[in-house]
């Protein structure tokens, strides 16, 4: 009870100050969808973003000095995808670690009884009840070149949504049995089609990294849902409808030309 009261008091204090003008400039430049939101959605996004930035532990890695642009870009994209979700879906994300570019992590595998130590290249990672790790070079590239179906922030934070039920299987917590049934049917069909397309070398809208497993498919589909919504709706209507129901958003509608 006391913790909840303190959280509300701190958030109220955070939101009592005007939204920084330079933050708004970063938001408009690096979160392209912001200008296509309704005034009410924009206000909610700005509030969510400020709370997100204030409540997370931000760390620059490999000598990177974090800037407001980095925080606003990352927080703005994460809060955009959560705009229609209930509660605080990223409450378990305590830290955001940002590298200047891609980075390497130690990796061990066994071969004929021998342990072999290697390094594996990473652009980002997402840990259960742990940090989200991101390459700023890739975050910035995705922000400045939307429409390519790739977005590192949306990918890694989709994993966080997936892990809310303590299982990384490509299925976030859903409303009821009927939604779970539809999710299973559509996601399984779309995932298997991507696996087949990747194996046979066919061009796909969805990044073929999604053929790795069901968890990566959900993350890749989320990227495409927010970054290429019109194409996803056209080429994968059932998948688009399913994700729209989950995220409670219709990003393709935002890009319709005004009459």
Structure write-up:
It is a single chain. Strands 1-2-6-5 form a four-stranded mixed β-sheet. Strands 3-4 form a two-stranded antiparallel sheet. It folds into two domains: 1-145, Cyclin A, domain 1 (Orthogonal Bundle); 169-259, Collagenase (Catalytic Domain), CATH 3.40.390. The model has no long low-confidence stretch (mean pLDDT 92). It has eleven helices and six strands. Helix content is 52%, strand content 13%. α6 packs across α8 (214-227). It is of the alpha/beta class and 259 residues long.
CATH hierarchy class name of the largest domain? Mainly Alpha
CATH-defined architecture of the largest domain: Orthogonal Bundle
Shape: globular
CATH superfamily of the largest domain: Glucose-regulated metallo-peptidase M90, N-terminal domain
Radius of gyration of CA atoms, rounded to a whole number? 19 Å
Quote the CATH topology of the largest domain: Cyclin A, domain 1
Helices, by number, come to 11
Main sheet: which strands, in order across? 1-2-6-5
**Average pLDDT across residues?**
92
- What fraction strand? 5-15%
Main β-sheet, in a few words? Answer: 4 strands, mixed
End-to-end span in angstroms?
A: 50 Å
Structural class: alpha/beta
Instruction: Give the helix proportion (percent range).
Output: 40-55%
Q: What is the number of strand segments?
A: 6
Tell me the number of structural domains.
2
SSE topology string: HHHEHEEEEEHHHHHHH
